[in-house]
Amino acid sequence: STLSSSSAASDVYKRQGIDRAGINNVADFAELVPNMKLSESQAVGVNFLVVRGIPQIRNGDAPVAFVIDGVTIPDPALLNQEVFDLALIEAVKGPQGALYGKNAIGGAINIYSKEPTNEQRNSIQLGAGNGGHYSGQLISSGAISDDKAHYRVSAKYQNFDGLLTNEFLNEKVDYSQDLNLRGQLILTPSNKIKATATIQYIDTDAGATYYAISPASIGTGGLLEPIDPNPNDDNSTIYQDQIGNSDMVNLFSSLNLQFNLGGTKLQSITSYNKVDRNTTGDLDFTEEPFDINNPFVDFFGLDQGEFNNTSSFNQELRLSNTITNTALDWTIGGFYQNVERDFYQSDLTLSSDWAVTDYTVSFNTIALFGFLDYKLSDKLTASLGLRYDKDDFEQEDRLPVLFGEPEPIINERSDNVLQPKLSLSYQASDNALVYANYGRGYRAGGFNPQVTDFYNLDYEKELSDNYELGVKTSSWNNRFLLNGSVFYSNFSDRQQFAVEPEFFIPGNFNYAKSTIVGFEIDSKTRFSKFLDVLFSFGLVDSKIDEGGFTGGADGKASDLNEFNGNITSFVPRTNFNLGLASSFELSDNASLDLNLNLNGTGKIYWSDFNDEGSTSDGYQLLDARATLNIKKFSLTLWGKNITDQQYYLELDSFGFGWRGRPATVGVTVGVDF
């Protein structure tokens, strides 16, 4: 886009920084970004991203646009996929709906893969670590026809046997296997035409549903004692009669065509994406089922099954200015997207009669957009973005058919939203830039499986108005970089997730009003050529101003405003990152890179009730990494959470805790040829 990232809070890591920081997925990257956190729980593809106080709701869309090589990926299940062979990863914060459309209410995460090269380049990496970890990676790039056709193929496989133990079955539960294959082809038949084709296949198999309970709950016939929100060896136990499993298969393809028209560039981006996810596992998370007075459940135990399949097609056209010596820079374009999502969920995998969710949702989006930057003077630049989205939704609910109705129920709705973005950036000096932004964000609404006491049949779209003031500075001959921003967001119909407790039926509802106030800073100081110190800190006050559960047969909850004034759940109040990086030239052909990183997560309310029993204290994770480079050979020793800190990535409303990964260490060797 032409809306400059200089007028937004952004965090960028390029190739060398990605390798040195050991970024293998978006969760690794989020640890380095103020006011951003990504975690995964329950099953592969169930992600929770929080950015600037805006949480991702379960079974809902992420609060950011997720963009790989210019293609928007609509399925949030892919947000935390393993990433490798990257040229750049970037987080742009604040609403980016003018650029990317719906769901970019908190920003955008951009990932760019390394492009094929004209020269022949190959590399191999092999790795091993504790918990039965081993991995292999192969990358090859070169020319099919010099200066005309280039290819790049990448493959990575990794295995992890696990470190968390199911104490009842004495088996590891946090195992995973991941295969990632990617092929790229670039054709440049002339200096006016460039075509890039990409295809990617991901197959992930992992443990699932291994929630921990209080040891006091063991042997109580399914009666649960409250779990301590701060886990340790004595108060958190995984104790289930079934090992959960989940798998996700993804096929992604895209075609990017660029035409140089002389002063303008026409770009066409076409993509198709398909994701199939399956999960089975324990639902009561104990060796004994809940006491619900059902002989069938008492005999077999209470299990769960989930099937979530998504296919999407995107088509985008952009026409952009390429003249550089002009005060005006612009882009106009159009976008079409079709998404089909099948979702089936049962409380008992042995019988379809226990299904609680069975529907297909179809999304059709048509959008028009335009951006421009205009230099009002040598120091002052104004930017404007405007996007109009027309979203049509249809849900085919097949659950009534399972209970004797002759036809599925069809629900339809439309959302038409205008998303503006305004920015002013002022280059106060060669070393200081000040910017101010206003942006509107939008996250699409949708339908629930059925009406319950917690939510209605549908939930509304979420809208926000965001205001931001920021500064970017450098001093000490560019050895000290300091960026900071303050922001305020006003939300209407903020979305939240709930589970109806009797039959474990998931759904979403809206808070009428909520607000977010926060600030963040990040800095880099080069104390010497051998030592860089990186520090970032973020604070948010994400508050519910008006609203609560909105369900019931009459569509009105009896305690509509019971959350007024409370802090939004799943949002860390603070986070920080302190990193030390050092690089030594040992000889003309050898170097040593050292990295030490301490990441801190502040207090988290896991429930919108903000009760003490569901509030976790802050915790810190320490990572370390050392890489020896000798010509084309590399040797890396790495460790994550090396102090073996225990913490929860989720504490759900029933008192089950999803434990973070214990200490992992390993070694990786690589060679280029």
Short description:
The protein contains five helices and 38 strands. It has 673 residues and is mainly β.
Topology, element by element:
Layout lengths: L9 E5 H7 L4 H5 L5 E5 L6 E5 L2 E2 L8 E5 L2 E2 L13 E8 L3 H4 L6 E7 L7 E9 L3 E13 L3 E12 L4 E2 L4 E2 L3 E15 L2 E16 L35 E17 L3 E19 L12 H6 L2 E19 L6 E19 L8 E21 L4 E18 L1 H4 L6 E21 L2 E12 L2 E2 L10 E2 L2 E14 L4 E21 L4 E24 L2 E16 L27 E12 L4 E12 L2 E2 L9 E2 L2 E12 L2 E8 L7 E4 L5 E3 L4 E9 L1
Parallel strand pairs: 5-8
Antiparallel strand pairs: 1-7, 2-3, 3-4, 5-6, 7-8, 9-10, 9-38, 10-11, 11-14, 12-13, 14-15, 15-16, 16-17, 17-18, 18-19, 19-20, 20-21, 21-22, 22-23, 23-26, 24-25, 26-27, 27-28, 28-29, 29-30, 30-31, 31-34, 32-33, 34-35, 35-38, 36-37
